[in-house]
């Protein structure tokens, strides 16, 4: 065991101080005690960073009761806790912490947590895991057990990443079924037996609610898979669990905190724990980086796959909007919403896209050789941060040495002078309309049936839902005109033309290049629970790809003082397979993805720590 003053010891100490919540740390209380009916009451939200507390005095007004189902093994909860709130809360407790053997875990030692941290870089990517399956070195059941243990040690205890909001109680059974198929030479696909985490705004028929991070949806159990999850299930993938996210996909407040939800608490970045994990696919990005699953699904409206992948040092791919079905995803904007892979390597994303599109066009796509590739460098969008520019220029020099032709694009002006005002109008109009429909279709099992009733629910339960920031976007969305209105059509037409015809299409054509490249974003700031997100000046042009609905890939390109940065590749509409094929070639010559160090803060970096100490002028 390490001394209490060690880095790992400080991590454990921090977790012990922060308290015990259903999706938070449990370092001094075993999971059995957490879900036992005799649990002690816990008062307060302690900064609201831990999610819904196990406090019997909390009363979520308007909660509806779920019919008991023996499949969930929660009869003891129903028997000992009579209020609808406690039935809902303990359902989430058991699903998040008690699934597939996690409920039998005990408090980990500092040594066990430290070992798990050290093993992060050894966690396999998809290709490696498939090789291990083929040679018998690993079974699906074994890798699921490893991930469940790592979730317990690193997500629930130790650094308490809070990236996984719920563990699937059926995951082990799904893994065993896959192993049976493998022994019978009846594998369903390259994803058969591969553990996948699903962002918790995507519905699955597993015994886990889809909450979008809101206690209003704690009872949102689906009777069917969303089409994209159905594809994964048909391919034999193991649905390991659901990932935490920025609540309502980061479209509730103008002062939100990326990675926070009232159900899941605050996601941490495994590279530096007090740095933003970005959002809204925060949990998916952090979990893949921390080696808690092989693959994850995220969703994006504007940056919600690319940014978390960028700051967590993994690969993220946002497909052309419409390529993947958005049915069964808690919506923001039908004109911009899409799901996409979040993985360790581009090759892993390629395999996921094959399965998600029920095709082999991604794995069969041929990339141009690097010496035939022409890319447009978006100099106008790279910003002026010297650290970012140094890494970006280093990556470009590596590509140029490999034969890539670089064309600098130094000037660009959006054709819509009201671009950001119109973008906000489109998002709020489409959010209000599509979320209204989503909630009304599920009204029988939820305490809310519309955006208006959701606003009231949040006000009635403000100590849980509005503890850190408000709901300005929800209120504004309820007041906007409907989708299809003249205001909506005018704003949508303006931003799509500016992003497509006069944006990405014009940039590609004018420079005569195959793809556009840029930094994927700024350096992640510290998590700020007082002011909300405080980001540096933005770098990159991912907003254009998001609003245009065009494919966008981010690949790790290095770190700045242990904070990862991504390298973006953007293509024209429906060039998804070519973007990924080119991304594989680029990935081969760039630096490998960084391994998380689980530093408590930037001050734990040796160079930063020395600078903080300063020079002692009184000693020789």
Gyration radius (Cα, Å) is 23 Å
* DSSP strand tally: 13
**Anisotropy-based shape:** globular
Helix content: 25-40%
Strand content is 5-15%
How many helical stretches? 23
Walk across the major sheet and give the strand order: 1-3-2-6-8-7-12-13-11-9-10
In the CATH classification, which architecture of the domain at 363-416 and 489-586 applies? Alpha-Beta Complex
Q: Which CATH first-tier class of the domain at 363-416 and 489-586 would you pick?
A: Alpha Beta
Please name the CATH topology of the domain at 363-416 and 489-586: Amidase signature (AS) enzymes
Average pLDDT level: 87
Major sheet description:
11 strands, mixed
For the record, give the distance between the C-alpha atoms at the N and C termini, rounded to a whole number: 36 Å
- Poorly predicted runs are 1-48, 52-58, 66-105
Structural class: alpha/beta
The CATH homologous superfamily of the domain at 363-416 and 489-586 is termed Amidase signature (AS) domain
